[in-house]
Amino acid sequence: MQPEQTRAVMTLALMAAFADGQKDDRERDHLRDLAQSLGSSAGGADLMKTYQDVLLGRARLEDAAAALDTPGLRQLAFEMAVGVCDADGVCNEREKAFLEQLRTALGIAPSEASAVTEQADALASAPVRAAPVEGEDVPAAALAVASAPLAAATAAAPGTAPGPRAASVSDAEIDSMVLNAAILNGALELLPQSLASMAIIPLQTRLVYRIGKVYGYELDKGHIADFLATVGVGLTSQYVEQFGRKLVGGLLGKVMGGLGRAVGSAATGSAFSFATTYALGKVAQRYYAGGRTLGTDALKSAFTRTAEEAKGLQQRYAPQIQERARGLDVGKLLKELRA
What we know:
Elements: H1 3-18, H2 25-39, H3 47-55, H4 61-66, H5 71-86, H6 93-106, H7 110-124, H8 140-146, H9 150-156, H10 171-188, H11 194-198, H12 200-214, H13 221-231, H14 235-248, H15 267-289, H16 296-316, H17 318-327, H18 330-338
Helix pairs in contact: 1-3, 1-5, 1-14, 2-3, 2-14, 5-6, 5-7, 5-14, 8-12, 10-12, 10-15, 10-17, 12-15, 14-15, 15-16
């Protein structure tokens, strides 16, 4: 991929990120830092300037679309934009309008576009209270707590007064749940399907929900999204980063049309998703065990430190991640996740 094509795809990704008109300062900061960090390895594509052009309205969607001169690249750009728009929830009207404008500019057939958006919307609306999907391997005791009736959970942990809380399952079971989730998300990044990567954020959301539940907290998606943003993981920016690391690192390989596009080595994305998921789980455990008393700076520091530690852990579990990827039935997993 040439630098101008890299810029074009990232331009459309950033346009998709800002299409809803509702990004808070934390998400903007995540996206700016991402553009800066990826820019040094973008092979001549100035991604910081790309970010500024999009933010200030200097970039044109039609120009970016015109730079993508093959059906595979155009399909890739559209799938990526859908994933970005749906990362923080089902598309709103402004995002739908943006995606329709992009579809037209890229020359994507309405039927092909609908197949992508419908499946992505189903993932974005996946419930946090659900049975494990293929590969999650949630310990039985933790699953029993997570799927308990809402009224029972409320009665077991009345009030929201701060202070340490005991978990309803063992630390070993929580550790197993976190590690299994990290391995599964690392495995998903090794698969070629776009929707496999789109499943990572819903799975992270479910992990935080289950950890909160074992400490007596009934969490909704809004709270979980705020928790992720506080520790430094924006929903939209995380998906852009997952995609951007592959793009600028030359890891996309041969691109084919449709959701079955082939990608090259995704080892970098796998390590990133493993570390992010593992750190989210461990910091969530500390946060809810402590009665939600950790401040913003402490949460960010704990997440950054744990994510760095998880990078070394990922190398140890690389064989398990690869084995999990070989055994995953993506269609079955996505169907279960949306159930």
